[in-house]
Amino acid sequence: MTDMETTLGDAQSRLKTIYDDLDADEDVRQRLAQPRLSIRVSIPVRMDDGSLRVFQGWRVQYDDTRGPTKGGIRFHSDVDEDDVTALSFWMAIKCSVLGLPFGGAKGGVCVDPKQLSRLELERLSRGYIRAIHDIIGPDRDIPAPDVNTNPTVMGWMTDEYDQIARRQVPAVITGKPLGLGGSEGRVAATGRGALQVLNLWAERQGKTPQDMTVAVQGFGNAAYHFARLARQDGYRIVALSDSKGAILSRDGLDPDPIHEHKHATRELKGMVYCESSLCEESGVEHMSNEDLLALDVDVLVLAAMENQIDENNVDRVRADSLLEIANGPVTSAADARLEERGVTVLPDVLANAGGVVVSYFEWVQNRTGDYWSADEVEARLVERMDREATRCFDLAEDKRVSLRTAAYRQGLGRIAEAMAQRGTYRYFNGDAG
Ligand SMILES: NC(=O)C1=CN([C@@H]2O[C@H](COP(=O)(O)OP(=O)(O)OC[C@H]3O[C@@H](n4cnc5c(N)ncnc54)[C@H](O)[C@@H]3O)[C@@H](O)[C@H]2O)C=CC1
Ligand SMILES: O=C(O)CCC(=O)C(=O)O
C-alpha cells in the first residue's frame, strides 16, 4: 500500500504546501509525520453464551505539544490502526485550530456493537479501559465519544477507570452522563458548533437560512442535532440518510419525528413505506445514498464517515458548498477538484469542533468543581466557534486560500509555535513517552 492509499497518508499529503507557506522548521515536519504513541490492545470479553471473544483495539496519541491529548473512541467493524491514527492527527489539528490546550488522540475497537447485548457492550467498554488505563488520565489523554459510542458507554468507562484508580477521576473522560459530571450541551455540541460555522459563513456570503436547502449524509448524534437546530434556524432540510438508505422531501423534512422513528426501528428507510400520516403528508421519497451526494442543494452536509467523496464521485457533487461534520469525509484528490470547481468546503477541523470544545468545557468543570448552566455552555461554545471561525475565514480571504488551507495554517502554526517554545533539546535524549 502506498502512503496515499492510507487514510493517514492522504491526510498528510495536504501538509507540504502548508508547511512551506508557514516556513515550518524541519523538526516540526518530522515530529508530525508520525504519532508519538500508538498502542494496539486485545480485549477478551466473556459473551452471554459463555464463549470468549477477543476484540482488537487501538489508542493513538498523535501529538501532545499543546497539552494532554484528546479525542473520541469509535466502535466500528471497519476501524483499523490507520483510521485511528489519521483520526488522532485530525484531532491534534482541530484542538489547535480552536485554541484548546490539548493535543490530539483517538481510540477505536473493531466491533459491530449492534451485534452485542447491552451487557456484552458494557464488558467490552470496561475491558478497553482496563487495557489502556495506564496511558490515559486528566493530564495525559482524555477520551470521549465518537461513532457508535455515547454517554452511557462513557459512564461505564469512567466507572472502570475510577475502580482501577480507587478514587473518583471525572476529568479522565468527557461526554459522560450528567450524573457523573458530564456537561450540559455536550450531546448536541457537534451539531450546534457546525451550524454556528455554517451561519457565520452564510452571513458573510449575504445568504439567509430561509433561502438555503440542505442535504445531510448520516443521521447519528452529530447529524441529528445539526439537522434539528438548522431547521429551527430556517434552513430547509431536504434529505437525510443512514447506512441503509436515504430519504428526500423537496418540501423539507422534520428531523424530530424521523429521529423517533429511527430510534424505534433502527433505520430511516422504513419512513418511506410506513403507513403513518407523516409520510403521506410530507411526501417522503426513498433514494440511494449515492444519489443523495449528487443532489442539487445549497449545502451538502457530510456527517457519516471518512472518504465519502473521492475521485470516483466528486464530479457528481452539485452542491454549492460542503459542510464536513464527519472527520475526513473528502479525500485530498477530491478536495483539489472541488477547489478547482469553486465549491466551498467548510472543513472538518473547524466545522465539527463543537464536540471537543464542549468536552474541553466539561474537563474544566470537572477540574474546578464549578458546573455551568446549559445557557452558559451554549454562549461559550458560540463565542469560541465564532472567534476561531472568523480568524480562519479572514485568513482565507487575506491569503486567497481555501478554508481548509486557512484552518490548517491556523492549527499547524500554533503547534509549530508551541514546539519552538518547548525548546530545541526536547528530543535530544528521545521523547520521554
Ligand atoms: N460525536 C461527536 O461528538 C463527533 C463526531 N464527529 C464525526 O461525525 C461523524 C458521525 O459521528 P456520530 O454522529 O457521533 O456517530 P453516530 O454513530 O451517532 O452516527 C453515525 C451515522 O452515520 C450513518 N452512516 C454510516 N455510514 C453511512 C453511509 N455510508 N451513508 C450514510 N450514513 C451512514 C450511520 O447510520 C449513523 O446514522 C463521524 O465521522 C465522527 O467522527 C466529529 C466530531 C465530534
Ligand atoms: O470530544 C472529544 O474529546 C473528541 C470528539 C471527537 O472525537 C472528534 O472531534 O472527532
From TrEMBL:
Query: Which residues are catalytic?
Result: 106
Q: Name the InterPro entries on file.
A: Aminoacid_DH-like_N_sf, Glu/Leu/Phe/Val/Trp_DH, Glu/Leu/Phe/Val/Trp_DH_C, Glu/Leu/Phe/Val/Trp_DH_dimer, Glu/Leu/Phe/Val_DH_AS, Glu_DH, NAD(P)-bd_dom_sf, NAD_bind_Glu_DH
* Entry binding sites for substrate: 70, 94, 359
**Which molecular-function annotations from GO does this UniProt entry contain?**
glutamate dehydrogenase (NAD+) activity; glutamate dehydrogenase (NADP+) activity; nucleotide binding
Enumerate the SUPFAM superfamilies for this protein.
Answer: Aminoacid dehydrogenase-like, N-terminal domain, NAD(P)-binding Rossmann-fold domains
Key words of the record: NAD, Nucleotide-binding, Oxidoreductase
Task: List, in alphabetical order, the GO biological process terms annotated in this UniProt record.
Answer: L-glutamate catabolic process
The answer to keyword Iron applying to this record is no
Where would I find the Glutamate/phenylalanine/leucine/valine/L-tryptophan dehydrogenase C-terminal domain in this sequence? 183-423
Which parts of the sequence bind NAD(+)?
Answer: 190, 221
| Catalysed reactions listed for this entry | L-glutamate + NADP(+) + H2O = 2-oxoglutarate + NH4(+) + NADPH + H(+)
Q: Which Pfam families match?
A: ELFV_dehydrog, ELFV_dehydrog_N
- Record site feature (Important for catalysis), residues: 146
Family to which the UniProt record says this protein belongs? Belongs to the Glu/Leu/Phe/Val dehydrogenases family.
Q: Which PANTHER family match?
A: GLUTAMATE DEHYDROGENASE, GLUTAMATE DEHYDROGENASE 1, MITOCHONDRIAL
What job does this protein perform?
Answer: Catalyzes the reversible oxidative deamination of glutamate to alpha-ketoglutarate and ammonia.
Protein's UniProt name = Glutamate dehydrogenase
**Which organism encodes this protein?**
Modicisalibacter xianhensis
